[in-house]
Write a structure and sequence with these properties.
Layout (H helix, E strand, L loop, with lengths): L9 H31 L16 H28 L10 H10 L1 H13 L4
Helix pairs in contact: 1-2
């Protein structure tokens, strides 16, 4: 994915973290939808079924767990964006701070690589 700001600058990290935030928000929405579908059970009638045979409990547990992980990751991204909010866009990020932001963005790098590899854009 092309980024308009010079690599290593505050603006570069703001842009990348914003893209990551948006991706995480979409994933959280997808997990919520999966939870809603799991709660409807196999009948699709919208009634909360109390018998385990009527619910996709494994899918529900997986979706809730995934959403929790995504929320934690989004909190980290939001914290990083907050740290960068009042800094000049052309300021260089270096050292341990750069390493921390790069580590946080490693999952975004992977997502972008998969988009390039499989030509999927969400």
């Amino acid at each position: 994915m092309a980024h308009d700001a010079p690599a290593g600058t505050v603006e570069h990290y703001r842009l990348r973290l914003t893209v990551m935030h948006d991706r995480l928000a979409r994933q959280i929405a997808d997990e919520r939808e999966h939870v809603d579908e799991s709660l409807k059970g196999s009948t699709g009638d919208g009634i909360l079924h109390t018998h385990n045979a009527d619910m996709d409990t494994e899918g529900l547990d997986a979706a809730v767990g995934a959403a929790r992980g995504l929320h934690k990751e989004m909190d980290e991204v939001d914290g990083a964006l907050n740290e960068l909010s009042d800094r000049p866009g052309d300021e260089r990020i270096e050292g341990q701070e750069k390493a921390r932001f790069d580590m946080l963005l490693s999952t975004q790098d992977f997502a972008e690589e998969m988009d390039r590899k499989f030509g999927q854009k969400k």
